[in-house]
Automatic annotation (TrEMBL):
Residues at the catalytic site: D81 (nucleophile), D83 (proton donor)
Organism (species): Daphnia magna
Residue sites binding GMP per the record: D83
Protein family (similarity comment): Belongs to the 5'(3')-deoxyribonucleotidase family.
Superkingdom of this protein's organism: Eukaryota
Phylogenetic placement of the source organism: Eukaryota, Metazoa, Ecdysozoa, Arthropoda, Crustacea
Cofactor note text: Binds 1 Mg(2+) ion per subunit.
Keywords carried by this UniProt record: Hydrolase, Magnesium, Metal-binding
GO molecular function: 5'-nucleotidase activity; metal ion binding
Protein name (database record): 5'-nucleotidase domain-containing protein
Protein residues bound to Mg(2+): D81, D369
Hydrolase is among the record's keywords: yes
A UniProt-annotated Pfam family: 5_nucleotid
Cofactor(s) this protein requires: Mg(2+)
């Protein structure tokens, strides 16, 4: 065959440059795609092409990643949550929450005493999962509301794909079953599914799954709805004890960042205003910040608000600020007319904060770890710029940077393109070869999942789609990073630009 004809066929079929037609190929054949030797040759050429490519560069572990353009020069006010934003916790906090919740289940709610023998399972769950309250299942959902098969657990036991399809009838979960809804201006959670979107929920999931596994293994009748609500109630009720324990020995539970005070000094020297809005009580925050910064930490912030009860802080306009008396360690009844530096306030709402300070809209950048409680209303309703602190980014990016992972992901993409290009073959031998490729693809997808978390994979992806958590994060956060002090690497006038990703219909017109 002449070279010109060969080029025309390749162009017509949109085959990548690493595909080559067999030299003995004849135009008289009804379908050259049915030629097994051609498919095998295409496969070997594709693998050789992939192996010959230089792997992509490493991702910066301490990077700041933009989902929307953010010009720091236009930001005059920086706000912060406390838990998992300024205060990053060690794994010891997970064990503490789990153990206190377990004790409450047994001693106060009269669950079987053997549950005290069930220990916390580090690394079992990731945040961002959903719990089906009625069915008693912990599962992972993607951005299209599809269940990721292989990531559905009853207790500590995975459900087969067949069991999942029998329970749900399909891979898809309807929006009204999965999501919350708005009622009288306030967002309400779904009564059927709970989205476990913060890091404090990880030990709660472990306690829930361990207890479920105990009931199932011992053939004890239980109601999943009751178990879920009891575990949730138990974990919520232990927060005062957890706070007291952390306050006594903060060094055992908090990760001290030596750059935190330097980060605040940089902002203050650049003329920025700083405020703190947290749901935690003052004494807990005070002890933590004293350990992280020092006794003078309150001098850093222009406004300090504790027990804010977010997300109500962003949605309820009828909750006035109250002064917290540092000597009496209690609220006082005086009406708050303005917010003074050095004083501590409780409750309140964002409308009053904006009215008393003039801090509004895109001039405010608020950092938090929870996509809903911290970022959603601040961004969508009040127009603030928002930054998400995602602690798990550190380990996720370290995994992305491993050479074996890079090879698997790149070969997975190439192999998937091979399957897509040749899936319409008609002869039986070629169909069997395509099925073999699909089997290899499925194994690659499992491997790239397990390296993040054996049970549930990455926080950010299902096998290929973004997770439900990712979808929310990218919608509500302008930037995200693993630690607020990562911003020290950038000028207070720096602009973060969102990358222009190729849309599906743009892919072939790009150098990607």
């Amino acid at each position: 065959m002449c070279n010109l004809m060969r080029k025309l066929i390749l162009k017509t079929l949109h085959l990548p440059k690493y595909f080559s037609l067999p030299p003995t190929f004849s135009l008289s054949q009804k379908s050259f795609l049915s030629n097994v030797s051609f498919l095998e040759n295409a496969y070997e050429n594709a693998k050789a092409y992939c192996k010959g490519k230089k792997p992509p560069p490493d991702v910066d572990v301490d990077g700041v990643f933009a989902t929307n353009e953010l010009d720091l020069d236009k930001v005059s006010v920086y706000g912060f949550d406390y838990d998992y934003t300024l205060a990053c916790y060690k794994e010891s906090v997970d064990h503490l929450i789990y153990n206190l919740g377990r004790e409450t289940l047994v001693r106060k709610l009269k669950y079987p005493s053997d549950i005290m023998k069930l220990n916390y399972e580090p690394g079992f769950a990731v945040r961002g999962l959903h719990f089906d309250i009625g069915k008693g299942l912990l599962l992972k959902v993607d951005s299209f509301h599809q269940i990721q098969l292989g990531c559905v657990y009853r207790g500590l036991t995975p459900l087969s794909d067949e069991d999942v399809l029998n329970l749900y009838g399909q891979h898809y979960i309807p929006a009204d079953y999965l999501e919350s809804y708005v009622h009288n201006g306030s967002q309400q959670g779904s009564s059927k599914m709970a989205h476990l979107a913060d890091l404090f929920s990880v030990p709660e999931m472990s306690l829930l799954c361990n207890t479920t596994e105990y009931f199932v293994n011992n053939n004890l009748d239980y109601h999943p709805d009751i178990l879920f609500r009891d575990v949730k109630s138990a974990v919520q009720s232990i927060h005062p004890v957890m706070h007291q324990t952390v306050q006594k020995n903060p060094e055992d539970y908090l990760e001290k960042d030596p750059l935190l005070e330097l980060f605040f000094d940089r902002l203050i020297n650049a003329g920025k205003k700083l405020f703190l809005v947290t749901n935690s009580p003052f004494n807990f925050v005070n002890k933590g910040m004293q350990y992280l910064i020092g006794e003078h930490w309150r001098d850093i912030f222009d406004v300090i608000i504790v027990q804010a009860r977010k997300p109500k802080f962003f949605t309820d306009e009828n909750r006035p600020f109250r002064v917290y008396d540092l000597h009496q360690q209690d609220h006082v009844w005086d009406k708050v007319h303005n917010l003074e530096k050095g004083r501590v306030y409780c409750e309140g709402n964002v409308r009053q904060l904006q009215g008393m300070t003039g801090w509004k809209g895109r001039s405010v950048l608020y950092f938090g770890d929870h996509p809903y409680t911290d970022l959603a209303d601040a961004s969508l309703v009040h127009g603030w710029k928002t930054g998400a602190i995602i602690k798990e980014l550190t380990s996720e990016i370290k995994t992305l940077n491993k050479s074996e992972f890079k090879w698997h992901v790149n070969w997975l993409q190439v192999l998937q393109q091979l399957i897509e290009e040749h899936q319409d073959v008609e002869d039986e031998p070629s169909q069997q070869l395509i099925k073999h490729w699909i089997g290899e693809r499925d194994e690659l997808r499992k491997e790239t999942k397990h390296v993040f978390n054996k049970q549930f994979g990455s926080l950010f992806r299902t096998y290929h789609n973004p997770t439900y958590f990712s979808r929310r994060l990218f919608r509500f956060a302008d930037v995200y990073t693993s630690n607020v002090t990562n911003l020290l690497r950038f000028s207070p006038k720096h602009t973060f630009y969102a990358r222009r990703g190729a849309l599906p219909h743009e892919y072939r017109s790009w150098f990607v």
